[in-house]
Write the structure tokens for this entry.
Amino acid sequence: MNYIQQAMEIARGTNCAGDTTFFQAIEEVLTSIKPFIKKNPEYIEHNIIERIICPNREIRFKIEWLDDKNRIHVNNGYRIQFNNALGPYKGGVRFHPSVNPDILKFLAFEQIFKNAITGLHIGGAKGGADFDPKGKSDQEIMKFCQAFMTAFYNSIGEDIDILGGDIGVGEREVGYLFGQYKMLTNSYDSIITSKPIALGGSEGRSSATGYGLVYFTQTLLEDMGETLKGKICTISGSGNVAIHAIEKLYDIGAIPVTCSDSKGTIHDPNGIDLALLKEIKLEQRASLELYAEEKKTATYVKREEYQGGSYVWDIPCFAAFPCATQNELGEESAQKLIDNDVKIIAEGANMPTTTQGIELFMKNDIIFAPAKAANAGGVAVSVLEMSQNSAFNYWSPEEIDQKLQEIMSKIYRDIKKTCDEYNLDMDLAAGANILGFKRVAKAMVAQGV
Ligand code: NDP
Ligand code: 2IT
């Protein structure tokens, strides 16, 4: 058995034991770095793979909080501090009922390589809680965030582990988490990013992931003599990433026609009404059902009434942007996109395409922009926020946007260079994995055992 297969068996057995999503992420990375290991066998001597697939620390904590009727609730909180070879642990926090150690280990593992691909000195981590923010009052959200931070604040620090946003954690939650940290430690240390501007947040952080996704896709397409301008685009999700991707697609002259949430999908063939979408999802925190009630040009398809995947992927498009959650685009949906002549898939969410979906896209020569590269703009601007905070500095929205564009374009160039070096043609997923792995592995060797 060769070294990589052996490591995969270890992963399947002890590391992942029952963690199917975590194993999916490991298998995807390990399969594509084979040419790199073949060319650089010294990493076998250092047993880097077995070391890199095992998290440094997994923290689990109990969160007790009181709702508005003074009833006591208990939730499970987690932080996976996966790898800090390149720098302090960095990664988002997710509040969603589906959160469990398997999901967070996959996200933290992906974050190691994504963060390395940005070229910035940050390690990989992820955290969260199985808390459902839906239907909670603002006060209940605040109490939960305070309880989360109280249970866990002594495990983080501005040079140790820096939190950030993810599903269910936006500026509001980050503000409350940061406020509680300040209260507990009497410090203004930048232990979390995506802060409200009033608390030292970066002007461009809330839009960075969605904008960065479009910048990356446009750079890639320009390199191939193509453009998104005038093209029909489909987007899933209707949260932070999806909304800002839609906004930037309009800015560059593309036509975004779909969005979705956990309850259903909107198809608006004239283009999504961005102001209405923001009002419903960001202001009212309501369901997309309201969009269809307001907009008669739109079709609304309820998730429970739709068989197989998501209705988003039934809509013919030039470019598809999955921006909701993991494994939302499976084999059947991939086949529909291919049958409808899709040209490019660019991942805004983390690992939204299943292994079978990716295989199908690759087999059919569909350009595939993997999450690790395409959605790295968010964490990259998080590092700009950290650096502004520690230098007591300020960058304007224009300066941040300029830096974001440069970062996304450099990520693309670095990946393309890696693809050329390993004769991978346009297999950007393999190029991204090799680039990220190489940077982390080098640091692990340099730091010793
Ligand atoms: P938000 O919480 O702002 O939005 C999430 C969206 O996805 C909502 O529309 C939500 O529907 C939908 N959704 C979430 N979970 C599910 C589910 N299990 N099934 C169906 N729909 C679901 O999160 P973000 O936009 O921040 O995150 C979206 C994705 O992007 C995630 O994969 C995240 O990890 C990734 N990401 C986020 C970054 C960031 O900066 N925020 C950076 C890089 C990646 P509903 O409104 O009904 O809840
Ligand atoms: O998946 C991600 O890159 C994020 N959720 C953003 C992490 C961060 O620390 O800004």
Summary: Residues 90-92, 111, 114, 164-166, 193, 350, 378-379, 382 surround (2Z)-2-iminopentanedioic acid (ligand 2) (CB under 6 Å). The first strand starts at residue 57 and ends at 66. The chain has a mean pLDDT of 97.
